C-alpha cells in the first residue's frame, strides 16, 4: 500500500484530487489531504508518505521550502508539483532540488492520474534496484563480526554495564553510544524456505538487515543481533539527541517498517513479522526489554504471518520471568521447541512421542527422571509464557500432572503429555482469535461515539496499538469488509437519523458525521443512497 498526500490551499482543488485518488482502484492507495504546508509537515512527522502532490506556491511556505522539509523527513518520498500557470525558472529550481514532475492544473485529471501512475511504477522499480545495490555493496561484503554479536548478547543478558559498556562499544566500532537511549525493533522470519540449511538462513537474515539499512535514514545508527536463525533485534539511535528528533523517530520507524515488510514479501519471497515500541529504552533497561521482545516474538505472535505492530503493549499477557529452554540441551528437546515455535503440529506430535518412548524405555532411573522433569519444564514454561496458568489448572486438575508417581509413568505419561500438547496448540489459535475479536469490538465502540472526529486508519491504529497497514488487513480478515466501508456505513446511518430531525441544518450534518464540508457530504450521500440530503429529508417526511 502506498500513501499519497494532496496539499493545496484551495479546498475545492484539494477535495477534488482527494476524491479522484480515493475512488481510484488501480492501486491500493491511502489518500490524505491538507490545506497548508504547516499541516502537511505535521502529518509528515507522523506518517510515511510515498507521493506528495502539492501546489507549488502557497501562503507561508513555498513549494521549494516544502520540498526540502519533505526530503529531510522521508528521503524516498516523490514530490509532484501543481501550478495554475507556467513558471520555467521556478520549475527548474524545483527539479534541481529533487522534485519528480510538474503539472499545470489546467491539464486535467487524466494527466494527473497518468503522472501519479508513472511515479508509482518508479517506486516499485526503485525498491528493487536500491536494495540490491546497497545489499551487494555494503552488507554481503561486510558481514557483522562475531565479536559484535557476542558483545551484544552479553549486554542484553546484563553481563556488560557501566564504563565497560562504552569502552566495548568504541573498541568494536559499533555505532551506538551508552549515554543515549535506544529504540528497539524485533523481527521474526515467519516461514523458512523448504530444504534450507543454517547457511541459507543466516544469509537470508543478512539480506533482511540489508533491506532495513537501505530504508533507514542516514541520521540513524543501528546494530542488530540474531538468534536461532529466525529472530532478530535492531537497536537504533538517532545521531541528534533532541526531543523533536526522538519524537519523530517513532513515526518514521512505523512507516519504514511497512516498506521493509513489503520488500521482503515481494523480492525475497519471505514473510516477516515486526514489532516495535513508541518509547526508547535506557541501556540498563535493555536486558528486561530484550526478554519481553523475545517472549513476544517466540510465543505470542501466534501463527499469523506478516504482523506489523507499532506497540508491544498490544500483548498484555504476563511475560515469563525465567530464561527460555537451554539451547545446548538434548537435540530432540531442541527440535520439539522449534516445532512448537513454528506451529508444526505433526512434527511436534512425532517428536513428543519419540521423546516419551525413549523416556519409558530408559533403564537409567536418574536419566529417566531428568528427562521427565525437562518435559515438565518445557510445558510449564509455555503455560507461563502464554499467561494461561488458571486455564491449565482447570483443565489438568492443578499441577498434579507434574508430580505423578514414578510407577504410573508407563501407563499415564504418553496420554497426558499428548493432551497437554494438543491443549497448547489449541490455545494459540484461541488467543489469536480472541485478541482480534477484542480489537474489532474496541474499534466499533470507538467509532460509534466519535463519528464526527478523525476516523482515519492511522488515528484508529493508535487506539489499538497496531500499525495502520496491518490494522486494515487484520480488520478485513476478521470481519470480511474494509474498515473504511464500515465507517462510511455508520456515518451514512447517522446522517439519515439527523436528516429526520428538521431542526438540523443540512449544512451542519456533514460536519457532525466527520465529513469536512457540506459539498463533500452531499456528493457522498447521493453516491451511496441515490438521493441528495434534501431529497432524502423530504421523502422521510412523508413516511
Automatic annotation (TrEMBL):
Determine the domain of life of the protein's source.
Bacteria
- Every copy of the Response regulatory domain together lies at 3-120
Any idea which residues bear 4-aspartylphosphate here?
55
Q: Which regions form coiled coils?
A: none
What InterPro entries does this protein map onto?
Answer: CheY-like_superfamily, Homeodomain-like_sf, HTH_AraC, HTH_AraC-typ_CS, Sig_transdc_resp-reg_receiver, Tscrpt_reg_AraC-type_HTH
Residue ranges annotated for the HTH araC/xylS-type domain, each copy included: 441-539
One GO molecular-function entry:
DNA-binding transcription factor activity
Membrane-spanning residues where?
Answer: none
One GO term of the biological process aspect: phosphorelay signal transduction system
Keywords recorded for this protein, A-Z: DNA-binding, Phosphoprotein, Transcription, Transcription regulation
What functional role does this protein have? May play the central regulatory role in sporulation. It may be an element of the effector pathway responsible for the activation of sporulation genes in response to nutritional stress. Spo0A may act in concert with spo0H (a sigma factor) to control the expression of some genes that are critical to the sporulation process.
Q: What is this protein called?
A: Stage 0 sporulation protein A homolog
Species name: Ruthenibacterium lactatiformans
